[in-house]
Amino acid sequence: MGVVISGMTADARFLCKFMRNACLNYEYVYGSKHPCERLITMIGKKSQIKTSHPSKRPFGVGLLVGSIDQAGTHLFETCPSGNFFEYVSFAIGDKCQSAKTYLERNFETFGPLSADQLISHGLKALRASAQETDLTENNVSVGVLGRDEDFHLLTKEELRAVLASSAGEEQMIVS
Fold first, then answer.
1. Could you say which DSSP state residue 66 is in?
2. If 2 and its partner were Cys, which of 74, 140, 143, 150 is the partner (CB 3.0–4.6 Å)?
3. Is 25 strand, coil or helix?
4. Every domain of the chain and the residues it spans
5. What is the pTM of this model?
């Protein structure tokens, strides 16, 4: 499972710690991995309860959670209001509208693609939203999750190579 945050880091840490503990407890009791949709439902309920009490402030963070479980591959977005949605591809954060537009135009082609091609699409979506900033290994992180591999971040060297090849593809398209 991989988590991307947008908002208050302290609230994200609290929710991630809650999710880790829930997963550990589930694995201890049932001997298997926690189903992602059930975990996201718990986060949604926890977030919604915070909106109901006048003495508590709502969580100020949105999460984008990618995971693989027995039911398949999932990408969930959670909101501070307690709502959550499942997507094929999605972007959150400041200036994410251009990335969402790119992903909405291309998500139907993502099914048969390899991991490298999907990473390339993700970087193109990032470039669409970060038009005034060049993407480098210092301001981009890429996480990979697969059915046969655990979640991991690409190393700086791998990321540098992927960024260079993605930039080369962009140059060929523009020319």
1. E
2. 143
3. helix
4. 1-87, 92-175
5. 0.81
